Amino acid sequence: MIDAEGLLEGAIFISSPNCDDRPQGATIDLVVIHNISLPPGEFGGEGVTQLFTNTLDPDEHAFYATIAGLRVSSHFYIRRNGEIIQYVPVDKRAWHAGVSQWRGREKCNDFSVGIELEGTDEMPYTENQYAALEVVTFAMLEKYPGLEYAGHCDISPGRKTDPGSSFDRERYAGIFSRSP
To answer: Looking at 42, 46, 116, 118, which residue is catalytic?
Structure first.
């Protein structure tokens, strides 16, 4: 399901310039779950794609002026309707985790794949999103057996809160346990 170029079959691919090569010898063994909505709490617009492709117009919304200079990305973005957009091939390093550590290793971008869910910490994610998350996760587990997962809050405690209390961790653990 993930091809030789690191792209998920069936996902919409929109290339982000905010990525680079992973360090020599890096092993992908972590999925990091995030949430995002732009403007905050609003869904369905193009703000996330604009942010990840450095085309965000700071005059379009007051909040955009505060983040217009950010250079960030994620491998995958799952909209409320379950649509999957991929911005960075999985073999490349997306810039999603920032200052982070997992199990004593720093710089989680080096060894992780970032998945953004369109949402907020408090609003429940949709059935379509969980179905799409399962597709992405199964594809990742097929390519990288032995993956673990964490929320952004787990790898950057005190700095990040996503995916928030609305993310059903037990359900996601079940996806991992049913992996092919």
So the answer is: 116
The domains found in the chain, sorted by start residue, are 16-38+74-177 (3.40.80.10)
Please count the other Cβ atoms lying within 10 Å of the Cβ belonging to residue 41: 11
Give the residue ranges of the chain where pLDDT is below 70. Answer: 179-180
* Average pLDDT of the chain, as a whole number: 96
Give residue 180's identity as a one-letter amino acid code: P
**DSSP H or E stretch at residue 99:** none
Tokens of 178: 């049913």
Question: Would you mind telling me the total number of residues written for the chain in this entry?
Answer: 180
Q: Residue 157's closest CA among 117, 98, 111?
A: 98
Q: What is the pLDDT of residue 29?
A: 96
Catalytic residue status for 142: no
Q: What is the pLDDT of residue 129?
A: 98
Closest CA to 75 of 18, 152, 27: 18
The pLDDT tens digits for 124-143 are: 999 999 999 999 999 999 99
